[in-house]
């Protein structure tokens, strides 16, 4: 969704850092991309969630803020999520650390 878009969030997260195996930063075509690998259980949960919500946004939140909300176009079966956004490499690294339950240094 673009800036200014509205959507409803569920009261409880469907996936938490407990279902995250790792999160890393990589650069693709000059843009920072956060790659999140889920645990097998998290991967199954994501597959079900994406299968049941095709055409709807999937909010990815860090520190109670939506950092991305892509529209689900198909079921994600491999347990790997790539978060693309207008992030600096520093911001993407901070988000990746938070996704795995780490505490980012204050800035």
- N-to-C SSE string, H for helix and E for strand: EEHEEEH
Count of distinct strands: 5
Parts with pLDDT < 50 across at least 5 consecutive residues: none
Strand order of the largest sheet: 1-2-5
Radius of gyration: 13 Å
Largest sheet: 3 strands, antiparallel
Q: Alpha-carbon distance between the termini?
A: 28 Å
Number of helices: 2
Alpha-beta classification: alpha+beta
Share of helix among residues?
A: 10-25%
Sum up the overall morphology in one term: globular
Write up this protein.
The chain has 107 residues and is of the alpha+beta class. 21% of the residues lie in helices and 27% in strands. Strands 1-2-5 form a three-stranded antiparallel beta sheet. A hairpin with a 2-residue loop joins strand 1 and strand 2 (31-38). The model has no long low-confidence stretch (mean pLDDT 84).
Strand and helix layout:
Elements: E1 20-28, E2 31-38, H1 40-51, E3 60-62, E4 65-68, E5 80-84, H2 89-99
Antiparallel strand pairs: 1-2, 2-5, 3-4
What distinguishing features does this structure have?
two-stranded antiparallel sheet; 107 residues; single chain; alpha+beta
Quick description:
With 107 residues, this protein is of the alpha+beta class.
